[in-house]
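The protein record minuted underneath.
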Amino acid sequence: MGRDVTEAIVDYASPQAGMKVLDLASGTGEPAITIASKIGPDGHITALDLSAELLEIAADRARQRGLNNISVQQADAHQLAFANATFDLVTSRFGVMFFKDVVGALREANRVLKLGGRACFLAWGPFEQPYWETMMGIVVKHVGGPALVPGGPDPFRFAQRGSLSSALRQAGFNDIDEQIKRVPWAWDGSAEEVWEYARSISTPFLPLLERVPADKWDAINREVYAAVNHYREGESIRFGAWVVLGSGKKT
């Protein structure tokens, strides 16, 4: 489902052969694996994440692709165990909006970059888009209250134009760029499957889902399936997604 989003951040970051790259909040390995295929045998990328379990999946996926220029490291983006001026490029796909201290983590990214190096991030755009409104939006309509716990993890933290740029600027970056882009975001399967998937991985929405009374689930599910199927094209459900791309340079 995230293939086109991965392509968007990789195209935006434009990794070059021989680069030394750090991918933050890499999870199961993207965009680190795709970047590894771009930077060649003389380059190297470190995939970093808090979850050792997810990094095991990332390492296995890299081995399956015969990539020897990628390593994984369990660590916190707020405390990077790398020397100053180590990397040519820092990336993160759907990670920056979950950093507890965003400016602090971005300062760490700036510290480990070489002069002239860039940090490139991709985050969710607004909640008001098909993937979220057809599912979590319908739950909110039925149960009321906020979609997310105030002060808790917020996938849409940088949906407001200029907010990611502001954080990058506070962290010491220059030559800042920010743009919103619509990318393909499709599910090859049924409405029932994508709704199950969304419930299982959307951790910030768990408090919302737990507020649903048992007697409301049938009505919610019927409405979700109808709303999701509005975006069906053949065997796929083509939501599309609005994402925010932001970058800064160390100068």
